[in-house]
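During the no-cost extension, the postdoctoral fellow (Dr. R.K.) reprocessed legacy sequence entries with the updated structure-token encoder. One reprocessed record is reproduced below for audit purposes.
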Amino acid sequence: KTAFFDVSKKELEKYFGSLDTESMNMLAGIMLHSMYGLGKLELMMEDNFLEEITINSSKTPVVVYHRKHGWLKTNMKLESEDAIYNYASQIARKVGRDITTLSPILDAHLLSGDRVNATLHPISSFGNTLTIRRFARRPWTIIDFIGKSHTMNVEMASVLWLAMQYEMNIIIAGGTASGKTSTLNALSAFMPNYHRIISIEDVRELFLPKYLHDNWVPLTTRNPNQESKGEVTMLDLMQSSLRMRPDRIIVGEIRRHTEAEVLFEAMHTGHSVYSTLHANSSNQALRRLIEEPISIPPLEVEAIDLILVQHRDRKHNVRRTFEIAEIDTGVGDQQLNSNTIFKWLPREDEWETTNPASKFVRNLNLNTGMTETEITKELEERARILNWMSETNQNDIDQVGNLMNLFYSQPDLVVKAAKKKLDPKELFKVD
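Re-encoded structure tokens follow.
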């Protein structure tokens, strides 16, 4: 976009050299929006409070989903059905796709990573449609979650930190737009940088902290071309990732049996795996994994250590961690049990600790030798660090990442700083 803007200014200067800088920039911006971007919609695309931009036809106004206020009707309309089609066609061309009356449905992604769906009349009865799901330009962090957004409490975040540090397998479940991917991204900052990380997605939505980039390989699927050639599926990437010697594998979403099979095979061969799944509770997530069409045997599903469930409260327009549960079986029992550790209480908008963690503690004891008392102390220490980070506004993804990196190399330094409530900048001063 910057290159296009600069070229536009140079061309304008040839014909309108007498214009002042402000007018020149304005004209170049209009050209950028009209020829390279999405015209009128570009203004909405720059609004970080908008999550969805929807056009249902040229006869109705553009409707948006606002992060604070929910669905809102705007004062903008597109002038014709052709204008909607032109936007959809422009998006399709940029990703090597096509949308026509013969192929009237488009699923694609913008260069920014935003997800796009388009349909053409008469498939959509009232007219051509365009739906854009915008992803946050600044990734949410665990400090955002325990602070301003009140998505979870610090005790839950501490458990998740220990689980991530010691390579437990975690599935993040939830409904549509409940914050599954945002949570997965926030938890990624707890990974140490000496582990090799492979992420597999339909489109790049994960933005890991910079301190992890040297040993992170992000992989994305590819749709077939118009001759139905060149497709790279999620399954292809998952099978390939196992030959890349990963320590940790992040999979965007579990959808099909074949993909889930490879995922659980990775868990059982010593890889730490993290993924998302559409389900509204830990029990529902288990049923989805065991029953058709995913159909994974219960003994394999037992490899999951924790299921975190995200919930979107439509009444108050907020997102909350609904529950964190561990998955276990009895001795010689093939029946999976879900032990809920934390549960959200909607009336109080707080969380209760429902049951003591058993598998979580058992696994930590087995892999680290820590006693239950030592694990409790570790959790308290991490809660203190997270509260200190929240109080000192360390809520940028790289600020969180840098402090995690420092903690893994010099834990005593970070623990001491949190106890004394020092300014985190002091820890990174170069003498």
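The radius of gyration is 24 Å. The chain has a mean pLDDT of 91. The remaining legacy entries will be reprocessed before the final report is submitted.
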